[in-house]
Write a structure and sequence with these properties.
Layout: H1 9-35, H2 39-50, H3 53-94, H4 107-137, H5 139-153, E1 158-163, E2 168-171, H6 173-182, H7 207-222, E3 230-235, E4 241-250, H8 252-256, E5 266-275, H9 277-296, H10 298-311, H11 318-345, E6 357-360, H12 361-376, E7 380-385, E8 390-393, H13 395-413, E9 418-424, E10 431-438, H14 445-453, E11 455-458, E12 461-466, H15 467-473, E13 477-483, E14 488-496, E15 518-519, E16 543-550, E17 561-570, E18 573-583, H16 595-598, H17 602-605, H18 611-621, E19 626-629, H19 632-641, H20 643-646, E20 654-656, H21 657-664, H22 673-679, H23 690-710, H24 716-723
Parallel strand pairs: 7-9, 16-19, 19-20
Antiparallel strand pairs: 1-2, 1-5, 2-15, 3-4, 4-5, 6-8, 9-10, 10-14, 11-12, 13-14, 16-17, 17-18
Helix pairs in contact: 1-3, 3-4, 7-12, 9-11, 10-11, 12-13, 21-23
Function: DNA polymerase III is a complex, multichain enzyme responsible for most of the replicative synthesis in bacteria. The epsilon subunit contain the editing function and is a proofreading 3'-5' exonuclease.
EC number: 2.7.7.7
GO cellular component, one term: cytosol
Length: 733
């Protein structure tokens, strides 16, 4: 966008000084002349001049205009080219842009431009030599990268690597396809709103599930497990059932540490995902069919057996024989119909079921102790825990049940401490008994049943699950007992045992074409900040750079969005593979005059999603980021006018490359996107398409960040405050 160029302030100051000096000179001249005249002569002179003051003022004004014109020409020839040269040289100095500066202005400035171009050429020669040496030294790292790529390409599983804050730092293409299947709007965003470098994995998984799995891993590391891992199963917002295997990423200090306690320090974790929804639907359907066949056919088979037994009697009367044969035929027909109905409806039957994972019982008990103490504040300890027992449990819901029961004991019976006990179940092969023990007053059976049926409240959160739901998930049992000799009572859970195992079978990882195309290991160094975004450094933030194409330039007069394009910047890197691009049906004609600009024909938007569908997906794509656009006031106005219609509010912080350019280079002739691209040597591809303009804007913005730092602007708040003081911040839509 081009706009009116501001006149250099120094020119105005020189004009003011010239005006003051000229007026002072005139007054001094008149005063000096008056001091040499007699009073009568002085009166005569003043009388003559008084009638000609207008002529004197016009002459003075003409002289000042000539001075202004001369100063302006002098500035344009001597000062302005030097200032513009300094700004353009700053671009070459602070970024990796390589181009020759255009000579302009006076001879000395042109000579200086030539010398500067020579220095830039020498710098680039040195840089190329240095890059060659760095490339040679980095061959080992590149080889490791290639090995990682080859390893990732061998995996059929979806692989996602995160830092301890849950920010994604690596994922393979299979994970991208997996998240597309998990998306609630795959036709709009294609899963781009769920996965991406720097995005939080907690948009898909419950944070407490991941924290629980990390605790399990650290417990196994403390016991000296060489390759500890944890597993959990969860449902997604889209209703998918995922099995997740987690493995730790140790920090460099932890790998070199000698103490077991120091070796558990992690820098991140790896998640391997399997969508098991269809598998469990099919298995549940089979179980339902089996149940219906066994329970529903039992009486029919009994009737048939009784009839057959009666037919064995040789003296059975013909009428009675025919009657029993009729029973056999009727029961056979009924059984056949039942089997046919089960076969026809088995695909639609889905029994409520929750897959269980193998877990060392001692790990479950230790995790429960920590969770009870953190949530309820009660001291918790163990007694008689069999460390060799492996359980088949869904540990997250099991821990919720234990914490819930402990909390109610503390609130309603003033219990001051609890104990956990784990042992093989006496008289129940294949089962283990987990006891929650306390000392206190007696409890009625009605109270126990009430607690078992009430929705569980853990901390400040109330879940839809009950203790009975948890028990049924495990195919176990739950009851209350008192030990009168010890003056104790306990809740007992009967849980299924599992075969001992420490690691997942490596044969599960088979070949595929997936490549690790998306990674940024620098994110290992980032941590979540507790301060506000305005206090965060620009280089530490994640950005969504976007652009819109519209039917016209008047959002408040009915013009509509017809395309949205966006890209992401993470760790000062433009992620070209993580894009959002979507045509929008505006539900109104596209003016013919605008088609040559954006190239979108009316037939291209017919049948495309409407703005009600697209904006929520774009909002999810831009979640937890700073919005960036060129002339952002225009694009944001379109988004704000759709808030009531879509129910989506874009309250993100916003930066505008137009304002930032005017802040960095106030003396340049133009701040249009094309001018910025030329200034920063950015190749323009797909200009006046939403994604093309977003990509150009993103590249320009990346180059502006170090230049803002040179002006002392380091944080988001400082950038927003400084940008609002520029001339272009006055533009409204």
């Amino acid at each position: 966008m081009s706009g009116q160029q501001k006149t250099d302030r120094r020119l105005w100051w020189l004009l003011v000084v010239a005006a003051v000096v000229s007026v002072a000179w005139l007054l001094a001249t008149f005063g000096l002349l008056g001091s040499t005249l007699e009073p009568d002569d002085r009166a005569t002179v003043w009388g003559l001049l008084g009638d000609r003051l207008m002529l004197i003022s016009l002459t003075w004004g003409a002289g000042m205009a000539a001075i202004a014109w001369g100063l302006k020409r002098w500035f344009d020839h001597w000062v302005t080219p030097s200032v513009q040269l300094a700004e353009e040289a700053q671009v070459l100095l602070r970024t990796d842009v390589v181009r020759e500066l255009t000579p302009k202005g006076n001879v000395e400035t042109k000579v200086l431009v030539g010398l500067f171009n020579q220095l830039v050429g020498q710098r680039e020669d040195l840089r190329r030599e240095m890059d060659a040496k760095v490339h040679e030294a980095a061959q080992g790292i590149e080889q490791e990268k290639s090995r990682l790529a080859a390893l990732m390409s061998e995996l059929t599983q979806s692989v996602v690597v995160c830092n301890l804050d849950g920010r994604i730092i690596l994922y393979n293409n299979r994970a991208r396809m997996q998240f597309r299947a998990l998306s609630q709007a795959p036709g709009v965003a294609g899963g781009a709103e769920l996965i991406g470098l720097g995005r939080s994995i907690y948009s898909v998984f419950d944070r407490k599930l991941v924290a629980h799995a990390l605790e399990n891993i650290q417990q196994r590391m403390l016991r000296g497990a060489g390759q500890p891992s944890a597993q959990f199963v969860t449902t997604t917002a889209a209703g998918q059932l995922l099995r997740v295997q987690m493995a730790p990423v140790r920090s460099a200090q932890a790998q070199a540490a000698e103490s077991p306690a120091d070796r558990i320090e992690l820098s991140g974790f790896v998640l391997m995902l399997d969508n098991i929804t269809r598998d469990y639907e099919a298995e549940s359907a089979k179980d339902q069919v089996l149940h219906s066949l066994t329970e529903g056919s039992r009486s029919a088979l009994a009737n048939m057996q009784a009839a057959i037994d009666m037919l064995d009697y040789p003296d059975l009367e013909p009428a009675m024989r025919e009657r029993f044969l009729g029973v056999i035929r009727e029961e056979t027909r009924t059984l056949s119909q039942r089997i046919g109905a089960l076969e026809a409806g088995s695909a639609d039957s889905l029994k409520t079921r929750w897959p269980l994972e193998d877990m060392l019982g001692a790990d479950l008990v230790n995790a429960a102790l920590r969770r009870i103490e953190v949530v309820t504040g009660l001291p918790a300890s163990t007694v008689d825990v069999d460390s060799a027992l492996w359980l088949k449990v869904e540990s997250f819901s099991m821990l919720q049940a234990l914490v819930y029961l402990t909390g109610r004991l503390a609130d309603e019976f003033e219990v001051r401490f609890v104990q956990l006990r784990l042992a093989p179940a006496a008289g129940s092969p294949g089962k283990a008994q987990l006891d929650l023990i306390w000392s206190g007053q007696a409890m009625s059976t009605e109270t126990v049943m009430s607690w078992e049926m009430d929705p569980m409240k853990v901390g400040h959160e109330t879940t839809r699950l009950t203790v009975r739901d948890v028990v049924e998930r495990h195919g176990g049992a739950f009851w209350f007992e008192r030990e009168r000799v010890r003056h104790q009572a306990f809740f007992r859970f009967l849980l299924p045992l599992a075969n001992p195992q420490e690691q997942v079978d490596a044969a599960a990882f088979l070949k595929s074409e997936s490549r690790p195309e998306y990674y940024d290991f620098d994110l290992f160094k980032t941590t979540e900040q507790t301060r506000t975004l305005d206090d965060r450094k620009l280089a530490d933030l994640v950005y969504t750079v976007f652009d819109t194409e519209t039917t016209g330039l008047n959002p408040s007069q009915g013009d509509e969005i017809i395309q949205i394009g966006a890209a992401r910047i993470v760790n000062n890197k433009l992620l070209r593979q993580e894009c959002f691009e979507q045509l929008v049906d505006p539900k109104r004609p596209i003016p013919a005059a605008s088609i040559p600009i954006h190239g979108i024909q009316p037939e291209m938007v017919v049948g495309q999603p409407t703005i009600d569908q697209v904006l929520p997906a774009f909002h999810a794509f831009a979640q937890d980021t700073v919005l960036v656009a060129h002339n952002a006031a225009f694009d944001m106005r379109f988004l704000q006018l759709k808030e009531a219609q879509t129910g989506v509010v874009f309250d993100h912080p916003v930066l505008d490359t137009l304002l930032l350019s005017a802040l960095i280079h106030p003396n340049q002739d133009s701040h249009r996107l094309e001018a910025l691209a030329e200034r920063f040597n950015v190749t323009v591809i797909g200009r006046h398409t939403a994604l093309g303009d977003a990509m150009v804007t993103a590249e320009v913005f990346v180059k502006l960040i170090p230049m803002l730092a040179e002006k002392g602007i380091h944080t988001l708040g400082e950038a927003r405050e400084a940008a609002q003081k520029t001339y272009y911040a006055r533009i409204k839509y």
